[in-house]
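Extended Data, panel c. Modelled sequence:
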Amino acid sequence: MSATRLLVLGVVRMYGRAHGYQVRRELLSWSADQWANVQPGSIYHALKRLAAEGLLEQVEIEQGKGPDRLAYTLTGEGEQEFQRDLRQRITNVEGSSSNAFGFSAALVFITALPRGLAVELLEYRLTQLEGQRANVAAVLDKGSEWGQPAHVNELYRLWLAHCDADLEWTRELIGRLGAGEYVMADDPAHEFGAAHPS
């Protein structure tokens, strides 16, 4: 599933019922076109595709001004897919750019998870990142012995710095969630994106 699909499912879930323009406006207000490569056309395509797959339901033709007449709601299957994909993207640390988009998409919906589960998934991610860092450090340490040009080590140093930053940030987020920051799905008065429980 692409990051766009997760974002579209998440925004429709957040609103309860949304039309394409609402989804587009919300995602662009988050600058998702920059950090998740979400383009307006891909949002409308995802809405139609998700509806065809039974993950969204077209609920009514709205009367009013503007081009968006169809509204969508999340189906039971859509909720299951949203939760499955959200969890998978939080724990996946593969280095591709599409995975970075996917993690960013999951991060903006992390409050849709119960606090304990979010921490557990991030702890798993932390373990994966530590393994990734160890692999990069080994390549940096042994690269010249394996016949790589010395200047290529700069790439590995950059990767190591990225790993260290990811590890530090992940530990800090685990700490913030553990300290009760942000309103999570199992907190009373859950409201998407609220900074602290009421």
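The mean pLDDT is 89. This feature is highlighted in the accompanying rendering.
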